[in-house]
Design brief:
Helices cover 33% and strands 15% of the residues. It is globular, with a radius of gyration of 24 Å. The strands form seven sheets. The chain has a seven-stranded mixed β-sheet, sandwiched between helices. Strands 13-14-16-15 form a four-stranded antiparallel β-sheet, covered by helices on one side. By secondary structure, it is of the alpha/beta class.
Length: 544
């Protein structure tokens, strides 16, 4: 079936973490293109999901289905007590560009998170966040062609270049999209910008850099509009962003106090939360140095790690050392000088096989029970699952912040949040911090509450805006959720939504109904064997 006509019919600009509260703090002239889209069309807050994190929320946007169906709940995917960084093979549902392909429409997709390794469709795809540098693109060989055409292309900004590193990454996204749009003549385009999120983790409160990034994004959007002249334009974000006003809640310390979590010191816990390599500079090496120096540094760190591990087994853990250093104001200085591998070797951690319940990853937003028959060394009998879970839910609902306010606005069984065949992979108890003003941590620190590790946090309200020939700007976007984006975009092509989609066509576009599609044939799950990706997630605080 070939429904193609000339020109781009619909383009989606994805701005990670964009929200009106951030845009309103920028000067009036910082984002004129975005403001013109708002003024010519319609815009509103876009409700995110729990968990409101990049690798789970963007698949919800481009499949129109909740994590219980698409299967990605976090930056990490777990197999028993072991983990791997998620990639596209963990997404079990079909993205909208593959549905459009079934109707003869061609797509160009650039920088959308969790799209590596790509699957085949009519068009081109350059993966985004969660992909390794120099990723596999679709079609094969496209990455080399792209770099020949536009110059160096990085998945992650070069932080050593400061503000320029971020804006250069932004500019390369637009240049890549325009090149591919000219090369492939698509009907649909999806261009995502990640730097609007990462800057708040890398350089919180640096409004000079934040403004520069948004100016660069706005410029690239205008250049794409000039080059492609799409009939319809959407601007969407996966979640919002705002300063943290609350506390850090260390779930595993709380559970340890109840006896649910058992801990182990000296590096024997599972999993090792950060298996990433330290950078060569931090370890004492240099890219120009001979391998001998790197080997010496590795041996030195290995010996130091062994000594720290031994001390931890005797009770002198990294946490105890850290608290002592905090009291004399040296904690951050020492942390910068000591390799992560050494710190981890002396860290007190969750002993997963011997614990009844635990938080595996802070960005999962919840508690997992160590269930017999499901986990490799389960201790909670299936007959006691509901009783144990109900008791934990009741206890957690009563937890108050140090100021006496409620810590959570929701403590829920997972089936109240997720629905679908992948729900089994989710946490058993979902934690929703009040207003997402509180920071969740899976680390063992020796106290239940503390100062948040980050000063900014994801919020549930992002934004959505639309204008164009198929958009009825007189209609309201009130109540829009990120699950509504996929069916709405499909409707601009007169393509029916998948009947299993959780979202509905927004009132601004005339719907064309739903239909059953064949189950997608997804690739076998593969591992992400790339230390750069894990290092980046660790640097941003997503992997503790």
């Amino acid at each position: 079936m070939d429904n193609r006509d000339s020109g781009v019919r619909t383009v989606v600009f994805g701005l990670d973490a964009a929200c009106h509260s951030v845009l309103d703090r920028l000067p009036e002239d910082a984002v004129p293109t975005l403001r013109s889209i708002f003024e010519a069309g319609v815009d509103a807050p876009l409700r995110s999901q729990v968990p409101p994190w990049t690798p789970s929320a963007w698949p919800s946007i481009y499949t129109g289905m909740n994590p219980g169906k698409h299967g990605i709940f976090d930056f990490l995917s777990f197999d028993g007590y072991e983990w791997d960084v998620v990639n596209a093979t963990h997404c079990r549902e079909r993205p909208i560009w593959e549905l459009l392909d079934r109707y003869g429409f061609r797509s160009v997709v650039v920088n959308v998170p969790v799209t590596h390794p790509p699957t085949a469709f009519d068009g081109a795809l350059v993966p985004g966040y969660m992909a390794p540098e120099s990723p596999t693109c679709h079609p094969a060989g496209l990455f080399d062609e792209l770099e020949d055409a536009i110059g160096s292309y990085r998945i992650y900004p070069d932080e050593s270049e400061g503000e320029h590193g971020y804006t250069a990454a932004v500019s390369s996204r637009g240049a890549a999209f325009r090149y591919l749009a000219d090369r492939f003549d698509p009907d649909f385009g999806f261009l995502q910008f990640q730097a609007t999120d990462t800057v708040f983790h890398d350089r919180p409160d640096d409004w000079e850099t934040i403004e520069a990034i948004y100016r660069a994004v706005d410029t690239e959007i205008q250049l794409v509009l000039d080059a492609c002249d799409p009939d319809n334009v959407f601007v969407v974000s996966d979640h919002g962003m705002g300063p943290l006003a609350g506390v850090e809640f260390r779930a595993n310390d709380f559970l340890a106090g109840r006896g649910d979590v058992r801990t182990v010191a000296g590096g024997d816990g599972m999993p090792t939360w950060s298996t990433v390599r330290d950078s060569e500079l931090k370890a004492g090496g240099d890219a120009a140095d001979p391998p001998r120096r790197e080997q010496v540094a590795a041996l030195r760190d290995s010996a130091l790690a062994a000594a720290v591990s031994t001390a931890a087994r005797l009770g002198l853990t990294s946490q105890r050392i850290g608290r002592a250093l905090e009291r004399v104001g040296l904690a951050e200085t020492v942390a910068r000088a000591v390799p992560t591998s050494v710190i981890r070797s002396g860290t007190e951690r969750v002993d997963f096989p011997n614990s009844a319940a635990y938080m595996r990853s802070r960005t999962e937003c919840g508690i997992r029970l160590n269930l017999v028959g499901r986990e490799p060394d389960g201790v909670v009998p299936p007959a006691e699952y509901e009783t144990v879970r109900a008791e934990l839910i009741a206890v957690l609902r009563e937890v108050e912040a140090p100021d006496g306010s409620s810590l959570f606005e929701g403590v829920l069984p997972r089936e109240a949040v997720f629905e679908g065949p992948q729900t089994e992979r989710a946490v058993d108890i979902v934690l929703v911090p009040a207003g997402f003003e509180h920071f969740l941590s899976a680390e063992i620190r020796g106290s239940v509450f503390g100062r948040p590790t980050e000063s900014w946090n994801h919020k549930l309200d992002g934004l959505v805006a639309a204008r164009g020939e198929a958009i009825d700007a007189s209609q309201s976007l009130e109540g829009a959720t990120l699950l509504d984006i996929a069916p709405t975009v499909l409707a601009t092509f007169d393509v029916p939504a998948d009947r299993r989609m959780d979202g509905t066509v927004l009132r601004i576009v005339e719907g064309v109904g739903r239909q059953d599609y064949p189950d997608p044939q997804r690739a076998t799950r593969t591992t992400t064997d790339d230390a750069t990706v894990e290092q980046r997630l660790t640097d941003l605080g997503y992997i503790e």
